[in-house]
TrEMBL record:
Keyword Oxidoreductase: yes
Taxonomic lineage of the native organism: Bacteria, Pseudomonadati, Pseudomonadota, Gammaproteobacteria, Cellvibrionales
Pfam families: Aldedh (PF00171)
Name of the featured protein: Acyl-CoA reductase-like NAD-dependent aldehyde dehydrogenase
Catalytic residues of the enzyme: 267
Length: 494
């Protein structure tokens, strides 16, 4: 593997020397509780951030509430709000190199994946939802029990108010934009909390939002850990919480939000099955599996972590998967030749290794990988297990790492039962050339998002969310707008 690492731009180098702090009412507020921001590729500190204090969270919520009550954002015409969101997307593209380099350093993503994939997609979130600013329509209603000549009724949608948006570390910028774009399009004011590991790109996003014309107080960013998130969730002036993260934390958020019965939407864990039927294009399926489980080192909520292969092609596909996995060379995200990046932290790497060791102790067969890399940073080999059953922890538990569990099946009815035997229901994919089989199987799988002959491809117009313990509500599309609005009904005596 090449040792020629990407050279950072002067703009990125300069920004990393600046202390990062919470953004409240249109400015950085500073602070004294300083923490390191670590590059997971090297385990070295690259910058520092100042954690928010309780008073800072109060200030952020107050700024959001004041901006909402004073209609600084909702008082603009829908067209003006849409233009501001479109300008924000343009500014993100102007700063794409800076955003990509910070995402590479902070989250361990390859520069190509960030520059060519995540940054354009994040910008397009705002373009897509910019169009919704002028489409928050109500409807006239035919009354069921009143004389139509004497009464009329109509509905319209209003922003829910102040929204707390809590985003994870595995997709810091994209996940922030997934939440922020529909919230702003709906007219909400927001307090956004990035993961404590990955604050860099979200802070730049806040600056760009101000330059785009989004008024002060409409977007605030608070930095810190679980205590900051808890304060936001419990705050009586927060009307809505949108959280992406683990199912365990999601359950705590539901309990904490009961104080004022605020609206909650949750995008939680997944254990996504990939089903490969005997007539599938084996080469395409193999490539889909590898990308689905080893992209971003498996730190993806829809990672294809459970693979079910029909016995007729099991050996052939397994041989291809092993060869492809062994050929992946993990490395520094700055290395353009690295086949897979790092895990986010030492703590998370140890968690993934615990899953690997437990799988071996429970009798699973290690096909390849399974070891830490003896180098700087938080790396694990691409790992594949076989000889599993649905009672093993590796089939039940979300690993959130580059670990694939492979099982064989013979009967189509059995595979549906196997795939649905999970506490999760976020996503799944089906690989077959029989379109009838594909649709019939998709109808039976208990998951919020199904792909056929592909895996892990999002689109802003398509709702994203899960069944069962994978969450509440949907992101993307019109369903995302609904998460941030209330429906008001009006009955008029004429």
């Amino acid at each position: 593997m090449s040792t020629a690492l990407h050279t950072l731009s002067e703009q990125t180098e300069e920004r990393l020397t600046q202390p990062q702090s919470s953004w409240i009412a249109g400015r950085f507020i500073g602070g004294s509780d300083v923490h390191a921001i670590v590059n997971p590729s090297t385990a070295e500190a690259i910058a520092e951030y100042c954690a928010a204090q309780q008073a800072d969270v109060e200030a952020a919520v107050s700024a959001a509430r004041e901006s909402f009550d004073q209609e600084r954002w909702t008082g603009l015409s829908p067209s003006d709000r849409g233009r501001a969101l479109w300008r924000l997307a343009d500014l993100m593209e102007e700063q794409a190199e800076l955003l990509a380099e910070m995402e590479m350093l902070n989250a361990g993503k390859s520069l190509a994946a960030a520059r060519n994939g995540e940054i354009p997609f994040a910008a397009d979130c705002f373009r897509y939802f910019a169009g919704w600013c002028s489409k928050l329509d109500g409807a006239s209603k035919k009354l069921a029990g009143m004389p139509s000549g004497e009464f009329m009724a109509y509905t319209h949608r209003e922003p829910v108010g102040v929204a707390a948006l809590i985003v994870p570390w595995n997709g810091p910028l994209v996940q922030a934009c997934w939440k922020l774009a529909p919230a702003l399009a709906a007219g909400c004011s927001c307090v956004l909390k990035p993961a404590e590991e990955t604050p860099l790109t979200v802070l730049l996003l806040a600056e760009l939002a101000k330059r785009a014309g989004i008024p002060d107080g409409v977007l605030n960013v608070v930095l810190g850990g679980a205590d900051i998130g808890a304060q936001l969730v419990e705050h009586p002036q927060v009307d809505k919480v949108s959280f992406t993260g683990s199912t365990t934390v999601g359950k705590r958020i539901v309990s904490a939000a009961q104080g004022n019965l605020k609206k909650v939407s949750l995008e939680l864990g997944g254990k996504s099955p990939m089903i490969v039927f005997p007539d599938a294009d084996v080469d395409a399926a193999a490539a889909g599996v590898i990308d689905g489980i080893f992209s971003n080192a498996g730190q993806v909520c829809v990672a294809s972590s459970r693979l079910y292969v029909h016995r007729d092609i099991y050996s052939t596909l397994l041989e291809k998967l092993k060869a492809l996995a062994i050929a992946i060379e993990p490395g520094d995200a700055r290395d353009p030749n690295a086949g897979m990046g790092p895990l986010i932290s030492q703590r998370h790497r140890e968690s993934v290794m615990t899953h690997i060791e437990r799988a071996q102790s429970q009798g699973a067969s290690l096909l390849c990988g399974g070891k830490r890399l003896n180098r700087e940073g938080y790396f694990i080999e691409p790992t594949i297990f076989t000889d599993l059953n649905n009672d093993m922890d590796l089939i039940k538990d979300e690993v959130f790492g580059p670990v694939l569990a492979v099982q064989v099946f013979d009967d189509e009815d059995d595979i549906v039962a196997m795939a649905n035997d999970s506490d999760y229901g976020l996503a799944a994919s089906i690989w077959t050339q029989d379109i009838s089989r594909a649709h019939k199987t998709a109808a039976k799988i208990k998951a919020g998002l199904l792909w056929i002959n592909c895996h892990g491809l999002p689109d802003m117009a398509v709702p994203f969310g899960g069944y069962k313990q994978s969450g509440w509500g949907r992101e993307n599309g019109e369903e995302a707008i609904a998460q941030y609005t209330e429906t008001k009904s009006v009955i008029v005596r004429l």
